[in-house]
Amino acid sequence: MMRATAFATVIALAGCDEAVPDHLRIPGGNARLGARIVAERDCGVCHVIPGLRGARGRVGPSLAGFGARGYVAGVLPNNPDNLLWWLQDPPAVAPGTAMPDLGLRQEEARHVAAFLYGLR
Ligand code: HEC
């Protein structure tokens, strides 16, 4: 009995999506693809990103536990719509921000958002 429970817990942790609360789920977002995009776009140059090798940037805030953050960039309540907006056009959300528009397409932003909400 004990053993079965422990095993179920491991499975839940392994599938990132299982750990994401319903209100932070991104329709069409795939956290695995998101991780790849985040690596390719070098987000780690500016951010600490748990689990991503070399992602130790200090220009922007650490993205650890991002789902628990109350606001996106301190200006928008942290929810899927606002995060997607931010990822696609940071300067429009926070004029003067040091985070550049990285040219993420809508679909890419969805994957990246799913990845970010799965971060511990
Ligand atoms: C040139 C540096 C730079 C790069 C590259 C960059 N960011 Fe940022 N990012 C920032 C800065 C600076 C902030 C803080 C913005 C603010 O508060 O105005 C930020 C904020 C954020 C936030 C909001 C964090 C919070 O706690 O509010 C997220 C999410 C984010 N970035 C994700 C990404 C992702 C994903 C990428 C790659 C696609 C990326 N960033 C690339 C500099 C960068």
From TrEMBL:
Domain Cytochrome c: 29-120
Residue stretches in coiled coil: none
Family annotation (Gene3D superfamilies): Cytochrome c-like domain
Record's keyword annotation contains Cell wall biogenesis/degradation: no
Keyword Isomerase: no
Keywords, in A-Z order: Heme, Iron, Metal-binding
Highest taxon above the source species: Bacteria
Protein name: Cytochrome C
High-level lineage: Bacteria, Pseudomonadati, Pseudomonadota, Alphaproteobacteria, Acetobacterales
